[in-house]
Structures
1.
Amino acid sequence: MTADLPDPSASAAVLIGTAGYVHLPQLPAVESNLQDLAKVLRDSTVWGLPEAHTLTVADPETPAALLDPVYAAGERAQDTLLVYYCGHGLRDSESADLYVALTGSREGAGYTAVEYRHLRAAILASPARRKVVVLDCCFSGRAARTLGTPNALAAQAGIQGAYVLTASPKDHVALAPDGERHTAFTGELLHVLRQGLPDAPETLDLETLYRAVDARLGARNRPRPQRSQENDVGRLPLVRNRAKGDPGVPAGPVMDAEVEAAMISSGLQLARLLRSVGRGRDALPVLRMILQNRVPDAEGDAVIVHLELAELLTESGLDDQAIEVLEGAFHLTHKRFGPEALTVCRRLAELLQSAGNHSQACDVLRHALDTLERGSRGVGPAA
């Protein structure tokens, strides 16, 4: 494991994008940006962010629809919070404040959009130790001129203790070239994440990503990105460098039951070894990766991984995430009889009770008693 990388199980990403507008030019490439960026962040050879920790907000119509997911993800994230926005960036006619557009936003009418300071407040509310903000915004010619110095946008978007990477082309044509799947900036960012950098270390920090994207955009005579950072956070590793990995091993191989059994066994051994030497933080992504790559038809020992992961999350004070994991195990075992099924029910009921979900805890315990009764009578699982 690479200890310096952010822990996927304690991190979250919110990917926001507006492709369709009532009053502004359409940006169809934004939809592809959201889909492909979510996929690459979940790739275990890049970051391995759990699907449940990757929130996609497409075409928000109201400020609450845009901001609420950021607050929700921020509450969960303890390690790293990544917030990405792609769409039109606007300036109010009465000020130089930055706004991010909603589907019904209008040029020169900031009150129809979301003022960036509100997005910044939502990000700052998170306890995450580092915050990454990526703004792939386009501006009208007038708005671009109001930026003043080359780094004005990045400076305005800056967040204390965070790294902000911005793209600010002068018009939508530069942002989303005709016939291309992605916007210019995000397309180059995805290229670097997918292909990696042969001359870079095994992990890529934000500064390295910025320089690579900047060079690729400059070589194609496209608008150059800007960045702002606090406390040199850009030097902290963020993702794995895929150029240093084994090109013969795909990101998400389809495994048969024997291969999965071997993976579970070796992964459990590694996780338990890490816990025994006080490195529980590094054990979390190991267990997460096992569950992410599990063969759907091979349930067996996967329940053990759920239990192990839930216990480690509970020890780390992440009870909400432990409940999610145990609920997954409950769905695997709810029609089976055996000690593991009963253990899942008992632990899930305990956590639900502690969280104040008394009725759900009772339902789980009632199911456990029914399962035990059927097993003692030799009756098969209920249909």
2.
Amino acid sequence: MVVGRAVLIAGLAAFGGALVGLVLTGHRGLRPSADSTDLIGLDDALVPALVGLLLVRLVPLRLPTLDAMPGMATATAIRQAWQLVAIAAGLPIALYVALLLGAPTETVGGVWALSKVLVFVLLTWGLYRDNWLGTPDLWSPRGGWRWWGPLPALAAFALLTSVGPFAGSHPDAADYPDPAVLALAATITFFTANVAEELFYRVILQTRLEAALGRWPAIVAGALLFALLHLPTHGQTASPLGGLPVTLAAIVVFQGTAGLFLGYLWSRYRNAWAQIAAHTIINTLPLAFL
């Protein structure tokens, strides 16, 4: 497809440009969020995701292609895909504009977390309830390879992001002095990020993009939209507008690269449990090191 090829080229150029821009400007260590003082190196973002991508490709070596949206007309998939792209881009941009207009960071962060359930889950269910999740067996995949196939990639990704030279920094126990606060934060993150984000960005959005554009254009576009989600909460400077170029490059390289791994994982195995497990490794596993 001409459109799919154009999306793929533009998307890869965005990834390459972001990485080169960070390197040339000396930003080899970046903050994982606006309120963090820790720095994460570029290698910490790239290596675990790239190793995960390689293992997803190799285990097993040959796989049948799984239909993205069985029974859905291409025209319908295209229409829904663009509607979902508008939602995926509109939410973080609206929250970022609220920051520019002076909304408190804590308020924007709270709305950001709550809106992922309201918009990504409830709104999309209301819009597409007849064929909301597309792939009918995503919770109980048929074929043993769809269960054991993701395990090497998940294990390597967990190991590389937890220990060793590419693990980055872990949360400080001082940030969670009360076990009840930690448990509450982990539970909220699990449902708003690990579950809601995977349902929206991979199962709902990417699946329709695959039907409309093809596998890799959809994976790359979905990864960039997933990166954009973090615009309101992962700024690199105290000034949202002043740090915008670096923030955009940072979220593309960090969250976008993770999105490539998550997207390829979904495209190959169509296993929702594997997606949630991978996202849990990113967001929740680090809490085990407190």
3.
Amino acid sequence: MERPAFGEWPLLLAHVHGLIEPPAFEAAEVAEAAEPGDADAPATCWRPPRPAQPGLINELFRPGVRVTDGYHPEMTVVEPRRVGTLRVPSGLLAVSGPDIDRGDGPRITVPVPPGQYVLDEARVRFSYPCEWRNAEVTTTEPTAVRLLVSQRPAATWEMTLGPDDDPRLFIEQQIAGFDTDGATGCFADAEAWDPLIALFERGLIRGESDLVEYEDIDDGSMFVQRTWDEASGGELMSFATTGDGTYPVWVGRSEAGEVIGVVVLVEGMPELLPDRDATPTDAAV
């Protein structure tokens, strides 16, 4: 038999099943579309997989905010620690793993106005029972590193993609970012990437003691090495992560789309705890 035309399949079904009259079909009212991740969305409402979401990045740099990492019930965000500055004269920021250089340049690049930018760390303070001291110990640990472009708070955060990343192929909560085999990332001037990485390797791996354009940073921060290219003026600052793997790069933007800051979480995203006197309203940004 001939294939039914569009709209005539109900007639075929009625014929196959021996129905006297073809079934009646009524168009259902279309419900208002639910936001992605809305718990009230019908179970039959399909949506494509979403990449990982930014979470509460703004709050990690807001003193007094209470969070938990799942291991410590309560952690309090303290004042960010300013570590130094980074010169990006080319206007193209690189965020990558300096220990994995395949000769194809930095993994992630972000256009920023040419200039010199502050580098700081987000930190949390918490207490825990220390068995070998047999006492309650209070400590402070970093949660993220940031290149600060503007003092204004970011209105939105987005995960920056590499040249080969296609979010249409991502599975649910997949991340994209830079890879590291040595628990190290870096911010650098992308145009001076090759000479900066060469200096980094000469100073860190070969240990050349007379290398002028390289220094170890020993101030207790997550930032550990710095190199600078005399020809271009570009600089590189490396920082420690909590392990190997892939680390996403989050770019904060203003309402007008301007870059406010670039952040790398050195560990997982903590969960926001409610304020003692009120419920926070900024957790989605």
4.
Amino acid sequence: MQGQPRSVAGRTEKTATPFGRSHSLDFLRGLAIVGVIAIHVSQSFPSNIRAVDFAFMCGWTGVNVFYFVSAMTMCLMWTQRTETNPTRKFYIRRFLRIAPLFWLAIPLYLLVNGTGPSTNAPNGIGPLQVILTATFLHGFWPDSVNSVVPGDWSIAAEMTFYLLFPLLITAFGARRPLYLALAIALHLVNVCLFKPFAFALFSAYYGPGNEAFVWNALHISFLNQLPVFLVGCALFFALRDGFAKSDAGILAAFVALSFIADRATGSHEFNYLMINLVLGALVAGCIRLAIRWSPIEALGRNSYSMYLSHFAVIYGLRQVWPLANGLVSLLIAYAVTAALSYLVARATWHLVERRAQDLTHRLTSPTSGRSAIGPNIAAAATGVS
């Protein structure tokens, strides 16, 4: 990518970056959805082979890969577009990218799963949970997370990050130490102050026997996920501008402080941090090496719809599945789930997402000229978890 340097905060362009093509980002999204489908298929169709089921369960890391890719994609879009009213147009693009399909998923899963008590909603689903979910505020109340739409905790985190992103990048620009410093500060606030306080508060609110539910809700809360996004932003600028010794020093301090805080509070978030840092390194490696594979990239380009739909596909398969649990059943169920979810994604692209994209274009293009971002990058920027 080429362009003239600009002085706007966060928008200084370079003559060459490792993000010049969309393939690596699509490849990473594809890997992420492969992992996410793996964990949920294994929960419904276990192989009963410990090593295999454990390998499939590790697919939960796919959501965190989505977070890294999302943060890097947002930075890419922001630094490469030239337009008036960028913040307003950013919100329009993100809202219309996420909301239409998500709103369709709400009545679908209410019909499929009902409104009774469940693991994620001990007291059942009522108007509060539905309203919070529809307004993307469900990440802020424990029994609204994952209760209306399965896996919607990551959607809540994404939308909240989108809300904050223009403020962050305008304030911090390309100064990646600031992103890392904020990530450290928020991580320590979470494990030392917020999580212990919130655990006591919500455990008392939901009553005895719901401690595990509350602990999990706090683990997947936005405050616990935001450092991942912030590290993703720092990683983008490090890949674009080059890594420095100070980056390693800040990350080492992050690890040390997290270890100390974890031992002092028993928050059990240190391992989560370490896993995320390893995932960040793998994401950076894929981008630096420009790794690509067309079949995985195709999944990546349709990953959002696949993410929302694969829960329903698994539910439907479970109702008619003729095979007993085992390795063969697991592998076949995985292949069928991935294939059907992809077909649903292609259908929703034509029926919903393409129309939303057209509306986005009409709402954002009249006063922007045309953005400086290339068509391949624009395509990459549409994918989310």
